[in-house]
Structure formats: structure tokens, C-alpha cells
Amino acid sequence: MAGSLLPVDEALAILLDGVLPIPDRETCDLVEADGRVLAEDLLSRITQPPFSASAMDGYAVRSDDATTGATLSVIGTVAAGETPEISVAPATAIRIFTGAPLPPGADSVVIQENTEVMGDRIRITEPVAKNANIRAAGQDFHEGQVLLAEGRLLDARSLSLAAAGGHGTLPVHRRPKIAVLATGDELVPPGEMPGPGQISASAGIALQSLARENGGETRDLGIARDNAAAIEAAVERARQWGADVLITIGGASVGDRDLVGPTLQSLGMSLDFWKIAMRPGKPLMVGNLGDMKVLGLPGNPVSAYVCALIFAEPLIRRLAALPARNRLRRAFAAEAIGPNGPRRHYMRARFTDRGKKSVAACESQDSSLIATLADADCLIIRPPADDAVRPGAPLEVMLLGGDLL
């Protein structure tokens, strides 16, 4: 299998076969829980609202007394955070503010706009129905009620609900640990000026961002030079950190300096497959080194990123207990595209209309051109041996950003 050229879908199925969410759980503060996955059903610790409260500024009254033209004596005031000390008796009212507990004896609140103030009395100008302008106790939820189900992706709305239910911390799935290793004598760290024959290591930055976007925790293993000892030392750092996935960049082809595969195999990696029928990204390696999944990506930044979208993203999301992300959409060719070769081709492209229905391929598809990747907003997916595409023909595209399911 190591030498075969696998179709993309078959390769992805092999990669994900048997992969389950990481079972480890941890407790996380609410402010740190955004984007995490809830590890168990969350029950409310309180009833909300804990008491019947006024929904408006006005007067707590008995609805039978609050008829048009009736006058009522105002016998007190209650504000939010206070406890009513007196009850509403017949022909009386208590001044009340939004969020304040409803006094005993009252069954409705007449809003202040529907009254006329006459000293210590009010005149009702509009009748009020029973239970009007009142938030009943338990109207939102009750103590012991399931607020959020296990597996919920936590966001601003769900975190607000958890806080309202009396929780300051939440049980969440541990983030998968993704170690990223760039390889190559020609690479220098980002921010360092390249010397003769050198280039900046850019792919690792993109892959770490993608991993974090999909629920992963990342560790930059730096740059390993083209020798087995440097690669072995980096792998050991990944193991010491407890990485769930090791992503390598470069060195996975068949050149004399492509040492990643042989070195990892010498350390005990079992190879699932190598080489994929796709463009860009043919030299892609998948294996297992003990409990650590290994994903070896091509060295070209565009190839590495496209392969990461197709293979690393679904792997990380499954480990993180996140639902699969759907980047696929239907669009139409804005212009003619030539016939495709024997491998599935992911072509960088841009939408040409505001409705994102028409798409044009970028002029150059060279896998070393990072600027075209940054400029693109989707990838046109061309099947193997696909005929030339005419303008207006339907296409399948993969979104690179924007609204995703």
C-alpha cells in the first residue's frame, strides 16, 4: 500500500478509520471555554428567574383593581435586588422597577405610561390583564433541568446560559495536541531574513492556525535540518509533550534528502499509505507512531495547506469531538477551464459575483505561490481526467473561509 497512488476519498477513509474523540476530560473556566466541546450534560443549579419579577417599570397591582379610571394608593417601592416588605392590598399599588421581585398580593404590573401620578396615588388610564408584564419564576428554566447536552460546541450563547444556570466552570473534552514540524536545510524561522538559497518557513504558521481553528492545541517543534538526528530529536519532543498528532512538512518525497519517512519508520512508525492521487499534494504520508498519528505533508506551502484542509482538518475535528465541517458548495464556471489530468485537482479560485455563484480559477496554479493562496477564497475541485469546462458549467468548490457549516 505504501507505494500505491490512492484516490483522495479512499485515503481519507483510511486516515479516519477507527479514530474516536479523545476521551480525556478537563474542567475549564467559562471565560476559557469558548470553542470547547461539552463533555457531559450540564444541569442547571438554580431556577431562572428564581422569583416572579417585573418585566417593566410601573406599579405592582391586583388586576381586579386596575380598571380604567380606578385610583390606587401607592404604599411603597421595590427595586431590583430588594425584597418586598409589604403586600399589595385591595385598592393599593407598589411602585416597582424592572427586575424587582413581585410583592405578595400582586398579580400584574401596570406600566408607568398607563398611569397618572397624583401625589401618593395613581390613576389607571389603561386596564391591565392578570399576569401582565411579569416574568414568572422558572419561566426560563428550572433547577435540575438539562441546559446543554453533551457534545455541544460552546459559544457565546451557550456560555451565557451556563452562567445563568449557576456554573463558573464546565467539563470539556481535552483539546487534541497537534505538534507541527517543518523540515529542510533551506528554511529559516519567520521574521529572520533568509540568506542565499534560503526561504522563510511559512507553512507551519498556517497549519498551526488551522489546527487551533478546528479545536486543536498546537506545539511548534521548529525546523529540523535534513538529518536523521534532528528529526529524531523533534519526534522525541513531540512524544514528551504527549502529542496526539505529529504533522511534518517536507521531506516526505523520494529525494536523497527526504529523510522524514525512513527516519520515522526506523523509530517504529507503521505506514498506512504514501502518495495520493491529488494535485497539489501527491507526496502525502500517513502512519502511526505508537499512540501518535503521523501526517506527513509536502514541503510546498500551498500543497501543505490544501492537504491539511482535506486530511488534517477532519482528523483534528474528530479527535476534538467536533462535528465535521462542510466546506463544499456548488458554483458555476465564470470562464473556460482546460481538461484535467489523472489526479484530482484542487485549483485556487475566486468568486466573481457577490452571490458567490460564479467562480474563476487563479491564473497560475504553481504550488509554490503563496500569494495566490492568500488571494483565493475557494478551491475548484476537478475530478481526475475531467473534460474541459465551458463557461456556465456547474462546479464543486471548497470554501477557504467565510460562512461554513
Q: What would you call the structural class?
A: alpha/beta
Helix fraction, binned, reads: 10-25%
Regarding quaternary structure, how should these chains be classified?
single chain
Rg calculated over all Cα atoms: 31 Å
Instruction: Give the rounded overall mean pLDDT.
Output: 93
- Biggest sheet architecture: 6 strands, mixed
Measured by DSSP, the beta-strand proportion falls in: 25-35%
Low-pLDDT segments: none
Number of helical elements: 7
Spatial shape:
elongated
Number of DSSP E strands: 26
> Numbering strands along the chain, what is their spatial order in the largest sheet?
7-4-6-5-9-8
Span of the ends, CA to CA: 34 Å
Characteristics:
405 residues, six-stranded mixed β-sheet, 7 helices
Compose a concise summary of this entry.
The protein is of the alpha/beta class. The protein has helices at about 10-15, 155-165, 205-215, 230-240, 260-265, 300-320, 370-375; strands at about 25-30, 40-45, 55, 60, 70-80, 90-95, 110, 115-120, 120-125, 135, 145-150, 170-175, 175-185, 185-190, 200, 215-225, 245-250, 270-275, 280, 285-290, 290-295, 330-335, 345-350, 360, 380, 395-400. The mean pLDDT is about 95.
What is the fold's blueprint, element by element?
Layout: H1 8-16, E1 25-29, E2 42-43, E3 53-54, E4 58-61, E5 71-78, E6 92-96, E7 108-111, E8 115-118, E9 121-124, E10 134-135, E11 146-148, H2 156-164, E12 169-173, E13 177-183, E14 187-188, E15 199-200, H3 203-213, E16 217-224, H4 228-241, E17 245-249, H5 260-266, E18 270-274, E19 278-279, E20 285-289, E21 292-297, H6 301-319, E22 328-333, E23 344-351, E24 358-361, H7 370-375, E25 378-382, E26 394-399
Parallel strand pairs: 5-6, 13-16, 13-17, 14-15, 17-21, 19-23, 22-24
Antiparallel strand pairs: 1-12, 2-11, 3-10, 4-6, 4-7, 5-9, 8-9, 18-20, 20-21, 22-26, 23-24, 23-25, 25-26
Helix pairs in contact: 3-6
